[in-house]
Design goal:
There is one protein chain. The chain has one helix at residues 51-71, and strands at 8-13, 29-35, 40-46. The chain is of the alpha+beta class. The protein has a domain at 27-73. A hairpin with a 4-residue loop joins strand 2 and strand 3. Residues 5-68 form the CinA C-terminal domain. This is CinA C-terminal domain-containing protein. It comes from Flavobacterium hercynium. It holds the Pfam family CinA.
Amino acid sequence: MLKIAKITLAVTGLATPGGSETPEKPVGTIFFCIITPTKKTNHQFFFKGSPEEIVLQAIDQGSKLIIESITSL
């Protein structure tokens, strides 16, 4: 039987220079927020590489966070 899971993933961050980066928030800083019916969690990660590599790492990490959220429902 399939179980319907309502999960929201929000992502923002800095993949390229020239924005709002600071020493505390350098390029490569990515923020995630996961919302499920029972909880909301925020995460911050620091990735290195080209803008494309940072985006791919963020996609990978976001996928892992979604899977973790599904398995904990």
